[in-house]
Design brief:
By secondary structure, this protein is of the alpha+beta class. 29% of the residues lie in helices and 36% in strands. It is elongated, with a radius of gyration of 38 Å.
C-alpha cells in the first residue's frame, strides 16, 4: 500500500508574516478616518449652532425694535424750571424719547393719544436736583398726576416732599401701574406745587407706557 505525503501549501511564508501588519494598517486608517469625520461633523455642528443662535438673537432684537417703534412711547421733560400746572414734554431730539406708531402727542393741549385698545404698563419718574445754596425755611410739596381725560382719578400719582434747608442734592419719585386703555384714550400729566420752587430743577424726569396684551393672564388677574 502506497502512502501519499501530505499536500504542500503553496503560500509564501513571508506573505503570511506580512498579512497581520497590513490588517493593522487598515484598522489604523479606518480609526483615523472615523476620528477625522467626527471632528469635521462636530465643527460643522458648532458652526451651525453659533450661526443659528446669532440669527435668532438678531431676529428677536429686530422684533423688539419693531414693537418699540409701534407699541410704546416715552416722553421726557425738556424744561428744567418747575412751574405750577405746566410741564413741557419732548417727543424727539432728547435722549430717551420715542413715540410709537400707536400714539400721537398734541403739543398744544399736552395730551398723549392712545390709538390701540389693550392693557398697558404705565410708568413715570420725577427727579429733582438742588441748584441753589440758599436755605429755605418753608416745607414744600410737589405732586405729579397722570390722568385720563374722561376720568377724575389719577392713573399714577407721584409725590416729592422738600423739607426746610434740605442737605440733599437730589430727590426723586417713581410709580407704575397696569391699566386697560381703549382706543382714542387721551392721557395728560398735571403738576401741582404747594409753594413756588426756584431752588430745585427737573432732572431725568419722564413718563411712558407700552402695550403688552389684549387681555390679562390669570396670574395678573389674581394680583
Amino acid at each position: 500500500m502506497t502512502v501519499l505525503p501530505p499536500p504542500v501549501r503553496s503560500e509564501d511564508p513571508e506573505s503570511q508574516k506580512a498579512s497581520p501588519k497590513t490588517c493593522r494598517c487598515l484598522d489604523y486608517c479606518l480609526v483615523f478616518s472615523m476620528v477625522l469625520l467626527t471632528m469635521v461633523v462636530g465643527t460643522m455642528g458648532v458652526f451651525y449652532m453659533t450661526w443659528e443662535r446669532s440669527h435668532f438673537e438678531k431676529s428677536i432684537g429686530e422684533r423688539i425694535e419693531i414693537d418699540k417703534l409701534r407699541n410704546s412711547a416715552q416722553l421726557v421733560i425738556d424744561s428744567e424750571q418747575i412751574v405750577d400746572e405746566h410741564i413741557n414734554w419732548s417727543t424727539s431730539d432728547v435722549d430717551g424719547t420715542f413715540l410709537g406708531q400707536d400714539f400721537s402727542y398734541d403739543h398744544r393741549t399736552q395730551e398723549l393719544l392712545v390709538k390701540k385698545t389693550g392693557y398697558y404698563y404705565i410708568y413715570s419718574q420725577i427727579a429733582l436736583k438742588h441748584i441753589s445754596k440758599d436755605h429755605f425755611t418753608e416745607e414744600r410739596d410737589l405732586t405729579v398726576s397722570v390722568l385720563r381725560k374722561d376720568r377724575e382719578n389719577a392713573i399714577l400719582k407721584l409725590n416729592i416732599h422738600i423739607g426746610p434747608s434740605s442737605n440733599r442734592s437730589s430727590l426723586s419719585s417713581f410709580s407704575a401701574s397696569i391699566q386697560y386703555l381703549s382706543a382714542n384714550t387721551k392721557l395728560k400729566v398735571q403738576l401741582r406745587t404747594s409753594h413756588k420752587i426756584t431752588d430745585w430743577h427737573f432732572d431725568n424726569s419722564f413718563m411712558g407706557l407700552f402695550w403688552f396684551s389684549e387681555r390679562l393672564t390669570g396670574s395678573l388677574q389674581s394680583e
